[in-house]
Amino acid sequence: MTDLGEAAPGDVAYRWSPWRFAIAMAVVGFAAAAAVSLLFSALAADLRFPPVSDWVLFVGVYTLFFAAFSVLFTRSRPPSLRFGGEGVELAAARRNAVWVPYRAVLSVQVRWMWPLSVLNVFVGLGDESQVELFDRGGRRPLRRQKGKRLRFSLPLAGLGASAATVRSELRSRHLAE
Q1: Could you give the CA distance from residue 1 to residue 171 in angstroms, rounded to a whole number?
Q2: Among 53, 68, 136, 171, which one is most buried in terms of CB atoms within 10 A?
Q3: What is residue 104's DSSP assignment?
């Protein structure tokens, strides 16, 4: 395994695309703003749709600022995904990276649809010592223990690959879901 960021021959790497990330965050921001707007009108016991001009202003401003600040904060430690000859490297946005050797992988899963798609890599507790962490100056990797398995997650929003592309690469590495 090479150091974080270096690609060896045969590696397939998907890097962060600021435009794809901004578009994904705009979709998420729009959905959140619309839901919050309707929730507040319901809590106020005013179950009708808010005035269109107020709603458009709130949703537009929220969507713009949510996307802009998401991109701004992600620029220092962008997400990446790399399939190497011996393992897969996951680096979620603003988090430290993790490298999981293929021999330690129990299963993989790509969940949800764009812009909320997530790659989950499951590792047995006994194989946790084979997993390497790379300090990028961020928070700990997205890791959750359930039973005798660890799950490492990587949101795919903003990467230069769709969920279908990642699934295809997983199949080519014999890590099908």
Answers
A1: 21
A2: 136
A3: G
In the chain, count H helices and then E strands: 3, 9
98: in domain: yes
Domain end (from 74, 97, 115): 74
**Same domain as 69, residue 35:** yes
Cα within 13 Å of Cα(51), Cβ side: 3
Let me know if residue 50 belongs to a domain.
yes
Confidence of residue 177 (pLDDT cuts 50, 70, 90): low
Q: Please, is 162 exposed, middle or buried when counting C-beta atoms within 10 Å of its C-beta (0-12, 13-18, 19+)?
A: middle
Tokens of 156: 């795919």
